[in-house]
Amino acid sequence: MANSSDPYTPLEAELQLTRQALQIVLSRGFRVQLITKSDLVLRDLDLIRRGNCSISMSITTLDEASAKRLEPNAPSPNERLKAIQRLVREGVPCSIRIDPIIPGINDRDLERFVKLVAKSGASHIVASTYKAKRDSFHRVITAFPEFKEKLAQLYWIDGERVGRTQYLPRAIREETLSNLKDVVEREGMTYATCREGLPQLQSARTCDGSHLIPNRLKATPSA
């Protein structure tokens, strides 16, 4: 729960649909990974810490100004890191998603980023470069017009087409993600990339961190 949306959108604070779903699936012993950008996940800590549940927190940048432009409705990076610290203290296994990495926007100072993540207690990092489609590319350059020419060159002229998506040139992706792997592993965490075609960079059993889901409860008989 969930890649295409977020289980903790602002409306969840009022509607509590994710909480109701968690009550059902965790009480029956299902394995759950929550993928979110929100510290609202702490509201459900009472359920999460007792069930077969791990958290994967997406943090694209530590720069507050860039974060507001890239993810205008999401909690600040600092709030998300604090949420991870609290979850780890409560015994919840956590991973961090540095996704997407966009050249010029959030690919700098990644070493400091990783060191702060390590201090938070997260044990796995999954990273992925930005994959451009026409609509998402328009949104990116609208938020960051100063990078329009650079990104257009990298993606639409020099980039690699995969299906309906434009990837960064393979050499750039491999260098960026390989350098990040070195930093992550020096800090004692496992590392993986998703949808990059670079399996040699994976040092964990799963890409997405789902291997961290604990086995605290067995399924209970149906009512």
Compose a concise summary of this entry.
The protein has 223 residues and is of the alpha/beta class.
Keywords:
223 residues, alpha/beta, pyruvate-formate lyase- activating enzyme, 9 helices, globular
Q: Which CATH-level-2 architecture of the largest domain? A: Alpha-Beta Horseshoe
- By CATH's scheme, which homologous superfamily of the largest domain applies? pyruvate-formate lyase- activating enzyme
Number of strands: 7
Q: What is the oligomer described by this structure? A: single chain
List low-pLDDT spans: 219-223
Number of helices: 9
Strand content: 15-25%
Radius of gyration: 18 Å
Number of domains: 2
From the 3D structure, determine the CATH topology of the largest domain. Answer: pyruvate-formate lyase- activating enzyme
Major sheet size, sense and barrel closure = 5 strands, parallel
Rounded mean pLDDT score: 93
The shape, in one word, is globular
The structural class is alpha/beta
Q: Helical amount among residues, as a percent range?
A: 25-40%
Give a written overview of the molecule.
The protein is an alpha/beta fold. The chain has 2 domains: 12-129 and 173-212, pyruvate-formate lyase- activating enzyme; 131-167, no CATH class. The chain is 39% helix and 16% strand. It contains 9 helices and 7 strands; from the N terminus they run ααβαβααβαβααββαβ. It has helices at residues 12-15, 17-27, 45-48, 64-70, 77-89, 110-120, 134-143, 148-157, 170-186; strands spanning 32-36, 53-58, 94-101, 124-129, 160-162, 165-167, 190-193. The strands form 2 sheets. Strands 1-2-3-4-7 form a 5-stranded parallel sheet, covered by helices on one side. A hairpin with a 2-residue loop joins strand 5 (160-162) and strand 6. It is globular, with a radius of gyration of 18 Å. The two termini are 24 Å apart.
